[in-house]
User: Fold this.
Amino acid sequence: MVNERFRFHGRVEKWDDVNGLGEISLDGDDRRVWVHYAVIEPRGSADSYRTLGNSAPVEVEIERADQDGYEWRATWVRGVAT
Amino acid sequence: MARDVGARRGDVRAFRSSFLVVMLAMLSTVFLVAPAVAQTGPLEGRYEFTGKSTERYFEMSDSNGTFTGRTSYVDVPPPEIGQTITMAWSFRISPSVRSIATSPMTCTTGVAQVPSYRDYHPDIPVDYFLHSSVPMLGFNTNYDLEGKCVLQVNVGGRPGTATLTYKFHFRIADGLPYDA
Assistant:
């Protein structure tokens, strides 16, 4: 179940497609969020390739974490059509 | 020349389903009895990455956690001679196991066919999103990734050590036709 209280709009600041890792910035918020391909909502079937585009707008849910130097980690990400 | 193409998607699903039943039965024993040392059967799966959009991501879960694997390789245009591929993977311990953890965890992962690759994380938080990448993988080769996370747990007042193991057997098919 998605918890709307923790959902934000943001933008992909960095994305390394080979390693499936990146960073998201939140709109109107200075927190930086660590993101991994495994939390990306697939387009189409569950088997679909999971990726993000640099600078792409996204919706993201986050949790506090101690993750690779980040204090926040994405638990769910979805690309937003522009 | 014929080649071993390994297990395909249908085989993977059947394997995972049957394995999950066994795992659930074992887990009910492990965590209800709460032995001093809890070592469950592995979370185990098999997959062939092909470069097609729906065959570049793998996921398997059980009551202990979730493992994923992913390659960014696409088969159009065809791969160049000598091209190698990176396989990224992740493992997260399930909320139910996190809830009984009483210590950080230490996780170690390797690939049998890539002796230079070893991922080692001592004393990391149990909610850490464990992730790594195996570089320099060749096409049409069978690889066996195996890892484990060890942590202290307490079930109903009984402390113990839990060892969570994951195994992922994979290959990356280049999709090129073979000469007769």
User: Anything to note?
Assistant: Residues 1-35 of chain B have pLDDT under 50 and may be disordered. Strands of chain B lie at 37-39, 43-49, 57-61, 65-71, 85-93, 101-111, 114-124, 130-137, 143-155, 158-172. The CA atoms of residues 37 and 48 of chain B lie 34 Å apart.
